[in-house]
Design brief:
single chain; 383 residues; alpha+beta; Alpha-Beta Plaits; Calcium-transporting ATPase, cytoplasmic transduction domain A; six-stranded antiparallel sheet; elongated
């Protein structure tokens, strides 16, 4: 029995917050049955997979990603670029809303803690909204990662803010003496959400090149069938269809001119600004612009087989590929979080032994929060 050919596929992923997220997803995907190779790019938010279709499929791989607390963007009704853009728009809007609310509440807590002496119980209520609503995604990703014995940046954020929040809560319930530090946990979450909001907006620009290329392809084509001209979606055009191309229209498919003559602007492919004269027997390329006459052409390549589609595919592969230095960065990122956790523990123990329990707590929180591998993981692929 012939062995099924391996499938290469790119799956957009939403919900990644840092380079460690990408490393975690990649590690788990590589262990999935049927997966030959897996590469997850944090900057483009995509997983590039090679797998055996006899053993696994897209739905199973999507399930693996979902179990980690992330979402695979797969839909038959939308293009990959449209899906990723929709998900990005939702993510940016959500981060903006959470930042505004958490920042407002953090300012109120700060004001109440240092100026008006707000009641501790009211501080607890306001801080709880920030901790478990605005920062809820950090906990979700942390728990999902810990199920697979992995840790990421969200683990550091969750631990750091939870320590400050729990310590303050014990003070409110009079189980510990002192002043609460709800302002610390709330402010940290608000600032991290601000950073993630700005970062999400920046990363949203990485797919602009593909969107511009997709915009070059017309949505419909005027096909001659049974002696009648009808406008149909580009996806319904088949090989050997006769297509009428009028002045000002974009070429819908790769084809050959069989009737008429015109000039085609092929600058999107060749860079040549002067239109090229076309007549019977000449080839035309999808996405180029008909500038003058009307011609009849025969479709030779349609859909994903056109030159424009192949260019888009190559751009996507280039964005998803990794520079050699990226492998080194991924290795560093995978060890980064465990090392930071050990440093945080050592910091706490050191300060506590010296007799400064409050300094031990605050220094530990500082280590957990300030340590962030996001720039390390994002800079090489972006550059």
């Amino acid at each position: 029995m012939a062995k099924s050919p391996l499938v290469n596929q790119t799956i957009p992923i939403s919900g990644m917050h840092c380079a460690s997220c990408a490393v975690t997803i990649e590690k788990i995907l590589k262990k999935a049955p049927g997966v030959i190779s897996a590469s997850v790019n944090y900057a483009t938010e995509k997983a590039t997979l090679e797998y055996d279709p006899a053993t696994t499929d897209t739905s199973k791989l999507s399930s693996v990603i979902s179990q980690l607390g992330y979402k695979a963007l797969i839909s038959e009704s939308l293009s990959e670029v449209d899906m990723q853009q929709q998900a990005k728009d939702v993510e940016i809007a959500g981060l903006r809303q959470k930042f505004i609310i958490s920042a407002t509440l953090a300012v109120l807590i700060l004001w109440g803690n240092f100026v008006t002496k707000m009641d501790f119980w009211l501080q607890l209520i306001l801080a709880s909204i920030v901790q478990f609503w605005a920062g809820g995604d950090f906990y979700k990703t942390t728990f999902a990662s810990l199920k697979h014995r992995a840790a990421n940046m969200d683990t550091l954020i969750s631990l750091g803010t939870s320590v400050a929040f729990l310590y303050s809560t014990l003070i409110v319930f009079q189980l510990l003496p002192g002043e609460p530090y709800f302002d610390t946990s709330a402010t940290i979450i608000a600032l991290i959400l601000l950073g993630k909001w700005l970062e999400a907006r920046a990363r949203g620009k990485t797919s602009e090149a593909i969107k511009r290329l997709m915009g070059l392809q017309p949505k419909t084509a005027r096909v001659i069938r049974d002696g009648k001209e009808i406008d149909i979606p580009i996806s319904e055009v088949i090989i050997n269809d006769q297509i009428r191309l009028r002045p000002g229209e974009k070429v819908p498919v790769d084809g050959i001119v069989v009737s008429g003559e015109t000039s085609i602007d092929e600058s999107m492919v060749t860079g040549e600004s002067i239109p090229v004269y076309k007549h019977d027997g000449d080839t035309v390329i999808a996405g180029t612009l008909n500038t003058s006459g009307t011609v009849i052409l025969t479709a030779q390549k349609v859909g994903s087989a056109t030159m424009l589609a192949q260019i888009i595919k190559l751009v996507e592969q280039a964005q998803a590929s990794r520079a050699p230095i990226q492998k080194l960065v991924d290795i560093i990122s995978s060890y980064f979080v465990p090392v930071v956790l050990m440093i945080a523990v050592a910091t706490f123990v050191g300060w506590y032994i010296l007799g400064f329990p409050l300094a031990a707590l605050l220094s530990t929180v500082a280590v957990l929060i300030i340590a962030c591998p996001c720039d390390l993981g994002l800079a090489p692929p972006t550059a």
